């Protein structure tokens, strides 16, 4: 018998998770349902992903993917839906919020990142004590498999660990894009056309990552291997070292973590 999965709200990240799931082998074991406030969007998504419209049923898992500011509206809907496990991807909204309004229910809070859209995501996960019940072991495993179908899963022991992973992988795609922006601008100043600058910058990132994976190397070791003494790469790295680029990145990630904590407190 297929497990019933309801997407309550299906914004960009929710749709990305749904798309990755539908493309995975796991989808054969699942029945997908969508409940959207915007009925036109709901119709479009159900057709696109061959899902079903919401109906009164017992759902195994609800994936809550509304905007954080709509959390109160969402819990009112959840009060009238029968389900066994709630997965929330609402940034900054703690599990205690759902326990306060819905009782001591099994909840998994997940912080996925942009890579989910390409099936290369990183998802930090934290489950409350109710979901650790032996009777729910199979459902807990299914919750984790949902996100391994979208990339890699990183379980954290304490909920605050989600703030830490947000500072690295959650915001990380923006850090990568920021460095890419700089590399593209540098290429343009060296008289490459914008399109070519983008192509060679992206290919350079992709190539370096693939080599690291293929050779099972640490980034530091590959960097040393390609940096000839007094060569061109050494000259560039020397600038990064003099400007203390690593310290800048460490400070930036620390600031992102502190802001994630602050946002959690305010919600």
Walk me through the topology:
Blueprint: E1 3-8, H1 12-22, E2 30-35, H2 39-48, E3 52-53, E4 58-64, H3 71-78, E5 82-88, H4 95-102, E6 107-112, E7 121-127, H5 137-148, E8 151-155, H6 161-170, H7 172-189, H8 194-215, H9 219-225, H10 232-242, H11 245-266
Parallel strand pairs: 1-2, 1-4, 2-3, 4-5, 5-6, 7-8
Antiparallel strand pairs: 6-7
Report the β-strand fraction as a percent range: 15-25%
Briefly, what CATH class of the largest domain?
Alpha Beta
Low-confidence stretches: none
Order of helices and strands: EHEHEEHEHEEHEHHHHHH
Using the alpha-carbon principal axes, give the shape: elongated
Rg, alpha carbons: 22 Å
The number of helical elements comes to 11
Domain tally: 2
Tell me, rounded to a whole number, the average pLDDT.
95
CATH H-tier superfamily of the largest domain? NAD(P)-binding Rossmann-like Domain
Strand order of the largest sheet: 3-2-1-4-5-6-7-8
| CATH architecture verdict of the largest domain | 3-Layer(aba) Sandwich
What is the CATH topology of the largest domain?
Rossmann fold
Number of E-state strands: 8
Class per helix and strand makeup: alpha/beta
What share of residues is helical? 40-55%
Measured between the Cα atoms of the first and last residue, the distance is 38 Å
Largest beta sheet, briefly? 8 strands, mixed
């Amino acid at each position: 018998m297929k497990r019933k999965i309801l997407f309550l709200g299906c914004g960009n990240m929710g749709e990305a998770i749904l798309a990755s799931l539908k493309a995975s082998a796991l989808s054969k074991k699942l029945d997908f349902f969508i409940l959207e406030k915007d009925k036109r969007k709901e119709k479009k998504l159900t057709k696109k992903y061959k899902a079903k419209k919401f109906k009164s049923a017992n759902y195994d898992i609800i994936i809550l993917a509304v905007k954080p500011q709509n959390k109160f509206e969402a819990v009112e809907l959840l009060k009238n839906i029968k389900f066994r496990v709630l997965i929330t991807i609402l940034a900054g909204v703690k599990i205690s919020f759902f326990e306060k309004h819905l009782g001591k229910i099994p909840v998994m809070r997940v912080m996925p990142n942009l890579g989910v859209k390409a099936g290369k995501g990183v998802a930090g996960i934290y489950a409350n004590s109710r979901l650790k019940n032996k009777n729910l072991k199979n459902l807990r495993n299914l919750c984790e498999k949902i996100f391994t179908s979208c990339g890699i899963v990183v379980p954290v022991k304490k909920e605050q660990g989600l703030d830490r992973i947000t500072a690295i992988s959650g915001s990380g795609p923006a850090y990568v894009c920021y460095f890419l922006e700089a590399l593209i601008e540098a290429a343009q100043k060296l008289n490459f056309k914008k399109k070519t600058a983008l192509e060679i910058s992206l290919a350079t990132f992709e190539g370096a990552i693939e080599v690291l994976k293929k050779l099972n190397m640490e980034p530091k070791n590959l960097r040393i291997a390609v940096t000839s003494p007094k060569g061109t790469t050494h000259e560039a790295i020397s600038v990064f070292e003099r400007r203390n680029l690593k310290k800048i990145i460490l400070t930036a990630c620390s600031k992102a973590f502190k802001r994630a904590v602050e946002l959690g407190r305010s919600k």
